[in-house]
Amino acid sequence: MDCHVPTLSEQIGEGAAWLTGNYGFPLVERTASELTEASGRQADELCLNESCHNLTRDDLYELTADMGTYNPHWAHHEELECTTCHKAHRASVMYCTQCHAQAEMPEGWLSMAESNNLPGVKAAE
Question: 111 CB contacts (<8 Å, ≥6 apart)?
């Protein structure tokens, strides 16, 4: 509930689905824009806040500087939203593998291709 607060109608709908046995799992993945709209926060504020990760973008760059060429926290193409790679309800995704197959993935992470093949996942645009 700290990440995204569902509306009353969403909560009622989910409760009814649970009671009738029509509740889907895994949960359908939400986009960053859906999460920020539901939480009332800006994209970075969704994750980079005192309750979750008390860091700035610059702190992230420093903490992951050893990742080398494919450091997703370094905006060498574009600055990505945290939720592009980090998922609340499943394994994180190495976005760089979308174009760079040789990008090293941290243990337990998924490539973009693996991620896009999961049920309920909205493929990256």
Answer: 93, 94, 97, 105
Q: Are 97 and 83 in contact (CB under 8 A)?
A: no
Which residues pair with residue 94 across a beta bridge?
111
For the cut 70, the answer to whether the pLDDT of residue 125 exceeds it is no
- pTM equals 0.67
Which residue reads 């994209």 in tokens?
A: 43
- Name the token pair of 51: 């309750």
Distance between CA atoms of residues 80 and 43, nearest Å: 10
Q: Where are the alpha helices (DSSP H) in the chain?
A: 8-20, 32-39, 43-47, 57-63, 112-116
Question: Is 119 within 8 Å of 26 (Cβ atoms)?
Answer: yes
Q: How far is Cα of residue 35 from the mean position of the Cα atoms in its chain?
A: 9
